[in-house]
Amino acid sequence: MREIHGHQVFTELAEIVDPVHTALLLVDVQRDFCSSDGMYGQLGRDLSLISPAVQNLKIVLDSARDNGILPIYIQNQWLPEHKAVSGPWLRFMIHQRDMPPERGCTVVGTPGAEILEEVRPRTNDVIVPKWRSSAFVGTNLDMILKCSGIKSVVCTGFVTEGCLESTARDAMFYDYYTVVLDDCVGTFDHDLHEASLKVLRTRVDVVASENVLSIWDSH
């Protein structure tokens, strides 16, 4: 830890991910993004990065629970009849290869919006619905984190260059120490995955899950 003009600054990973002030964010671990029977699987997207990330995330989630770390599920939502989207947002969706904008994804009430069984929430877990890529836009995530005394967030989930990166960037802008677990995130394009992680490394801590697990287990 360093002190700079009266500000205490965590400098070591062990300080940043201390279970006392850390939350685990699970971003969009949902069937439409992650399952072969979900929307992107049906569209023929490459899911080879997704399955290993889910399995690693399950290990991280179990460790978080064992160490009293707050898990927060971010659940992407799309209202029927496009009641929560705009022209610019639909234009973005049109640019997604083979993505039919008339359909939407993770539509409320459909199987595609469900969180994967492998990492299913427990009864009293926090679930934050979101309507845009960042989990901080139009949600109560920041309030929940601050009310829980959280200083650091460990980011996991999907997709790397989209909702995961957007959430990680905003977490930093909201003044949280931000850690991305590079083996607990994934997307449908290996090049975009690596490019996103390369950019994120210039902004936040990007590490393998084993580095964080060893710290949590030591507690």
Reconstruct the topology from this structure.
Elements: E1 2-4, E2 7-9, H1 13-16, E3 22-27, H2 31-34, H3 39-42, H4 50-66, E4 70-76, H5 87-94, E5 126-130, H6 141-147, E6 152-158, H7 160-173, E7 177-186, H8 190-200, E8 205-207, H9 209-218
Parallel strand pairs: 3-4, 3-6, 4-5, 6-7, 7-8
Antiparallel strand pairs: 1-2
Describe this structure in words.
- The protein has 219 residues and is α/β, with parallel strands linked by helices.
- The chain has a single domain (2-218), classed as Isochorismatase-like (Rossmann fold, 3-Layer(aba) Sandwich), CATH 3.40.50.850.
- The chain has 9 helices and 8 strands.
- The protein has helices at residues 13-16, 31-34, 39-42, 50-66, 87-94, 141-147, 160-173, 190-200, 209-218, and strands spanning 2-4, 7-9, 22-27, 70-76, 126-130, 152-158, 177-186, 205-207.
- A 6-stranded parallel β-sheet has the order 5-4-3-6-7-8, sandwiched between helices.
- Strand 6 (152-158), helix 7 and strand 7 form a beta-alpha-beta unit.
- Helix 4 (50-66) runs parallel beside helix 9 and helix 7 (160-173) packs parallel to helix 8 (190-200).
- The mean pLDDT is 94.
* Order of adjacent strands in the largest pleated sheet: 5-4-3-6-7-8
Instruction: Give the N-terminus to C-terminus distance in angstroms.
Output: 19 Å
Name given to the CATH architecture:
3-Layer(aba) Sandwich
Structural class of the helices, strands and pairings?
alpha/beta
CATH class: Alpha Beta
The sequence of SSEs as H and E is EEHEHHHEHEHEHEHEH
**Largest beta sheet, briefly?**
6 strands, parallel
Strand content: 15-25%
Which stretches are low in confidence, meaning pLDDT under 50 for 5 or more residues running?
A: none
Mean pLDDT score: 94
- Total strands: 8
Portion in helices: 25-40%
Q: Total number of helical segments? A: 9
Shape: globular
How many discrete structural domains?
A: 1
Radius of gyration using CA atoms only: 17 Å
What is the name of the CATH superfamily?
Isochorismatase-like
Q: In CATH terms, what is the fold-level topology? A: Rossmann fold
